[in-house]
Design a protein that fits this description.
- With about 230 residues, the protein is an alpha+beta fold.
- It has four helices and 14 strands.
- The strands form two sheets. Strands 2, 3, 4, 5, 6, 7, 8, 9, 10, 11 and 12 form an eleven-stranded antiparallel beta sheet that branches. A three-stranded antiparallel beta sheet has the order 13-1-14, with no helix packed on it.
- A hairpin with a 5-residue loop joins β3 and β4.
- α1 runs parallel beside α2 and α2 packs antiparallel against α4.
- It starts with a strand and ends with a strand.
Length: about 230
């Protein structure tokens, strides 16, 4: 077992489904297998969902298949989701777990009261840097391997707002310029900024994380803090 940093390059240790499933079970979310060979989790109040969609291969972000899809509704009986967030395999499971804890704790997961600045502040508080050209919309890690940015939504990212050219928070890690992305995440336009900030704060945390294996593309960028 290794304890490594930075977290955003540590990968998911190949256990993203299990780790997030355990987090959801501990929060009391119910789970059903679906006919599409996915696993659907629903919060106790019925307002939020989390689905392991890797087997269904719904679409790709940055050339990587989406693994988890999160969503929220204004009413438990509503068919239409207010917002969606998508994560590929390789995303550090600690960041996704902390986001789910924040979603579960939110009394109104479909409504946010914080502005976009709260996401950038969360990242900068952990030592990330605002982009020189886009300081109000983008922050990058000190090694310039990971970015969180307000961007036009990728194709197939669904939101309750049907207007074209909407922007939402996008995040990705590229350990070495020109190699495939390590992971990608996409938040639709209506995801509350305070929830994105919970993900961003955990992603940028300097606290080392345990891993049995590390991504090969990030080996030269990771620091092994200790072994156990």
């Amino acid at each position: 077992m290794y304890w490594v940093a930075p977290r955003h390059l540590a990968g998911d240790d190949g256990v993203l489904a299990e780790q997030i499933g355990d987090t959801l079970a501990s929060l009391g979310w119910r789970m059903w297998p679906t006919s599409r060979h996915t696993l659907l989790y629903v919060s106790p109040d019925g307002l939020c969902g989390a689905e392991w969609v890797f087997a269904a291969y719904p679409f790709e972000l940055g050339g990587l298949p989406v693994a988890w899809q999160l969503s929220a509704r204004s009413h438990a009986a509503s068919v239409m989701t207010e917002w969606n967030a998508y994560f590929t395999a390789g995303v550090p499971y600690e960041a996704l777990a902390d986001l789910l804890v924040a979603i579960d704790a939110s009394k109104t997961p479909d409504v946010g009261f914080e502005g976009a600045e709260t996401v950038l502040n969360a990242l900068c508080a952990c030592g990330w840097i605002r982009d020189v050209d886009r300081p109000r919309t983008t922050a990058v890690d000190p090694g310039f391997c990971c970015s969180v940015s307000l961007e036009v939504l990728p194709p197939l990212v669904q939101d309750v707002d049907p207007r074209p050219d909407l922007v939402g928070w996008q995040a990705w890690a590229e350990p070495v310029l020109g190699v495939p992305y390590l992971w990608c995440a996409s938040f639709s336009a209506s995801v509350p900024h305070d929830l994105v900030a919970a993900f961003a704060s955990s992603l940028a945390s300097p606290v080392p994380v345990p891993r049995r294996t590390v991504p090969k593309s990030a080996e030269g960028r990771l620091t092994v803090v200790r072994r156990s």
